[in-house]
Structure prediction request, 158 residues.
Amino acid sequence: MSDDLLRYDLMIEAALRDVVRETIATVSQNGLPGEHHFYVTFASTYPGVEIPDYLRKQYPEEMTIVLQYQFFGLALEDDCLKVTLSFNNVKEPLVIPIDAITTFADPSVNFALQFQTSGGDTGDTDPTDPSDTPTDGTDAAKDEKRGEVISLDKFRKK
Prediction:
């Protein structure tokens, strides 16, 4: 009988990850519209994550990046977000599998999604806390309004 179970939780998670995929694909082709910008938190231990060793040491479990002003080569390839960011004026390429992402937020429209990862561990840090966030070279993110995590229960009829 357990073979007959429909895993709606997994289907919803996959559909919401498609939102991230489509967003990254659109922005990689057209750029960021208006005031949109993204906080992307990911499990740094997830298989396929490629970040410099010094960043992996600094963020051994989870890391948040901000895509706002200075990011280069944003692309969605092989189900991975690929981007180059500047850390201490050194451009570093990052590869982040979509499945490694634990939080995707666009504070400009008060939008956020949280995910579970199936591999690697995540830390207990607040992924929307800009005080611990490596940014794309700006300090503007520190003053931004934080995104809201949306529960699907909010949209269900009672």
DSSP finds two helices and seven strands in the chain. The CA atoms of residues 12 and 153 lie 12 Å apart. The two ends are 29 Å apart (CA to CA). The chain has a mean pLDDT of 79.
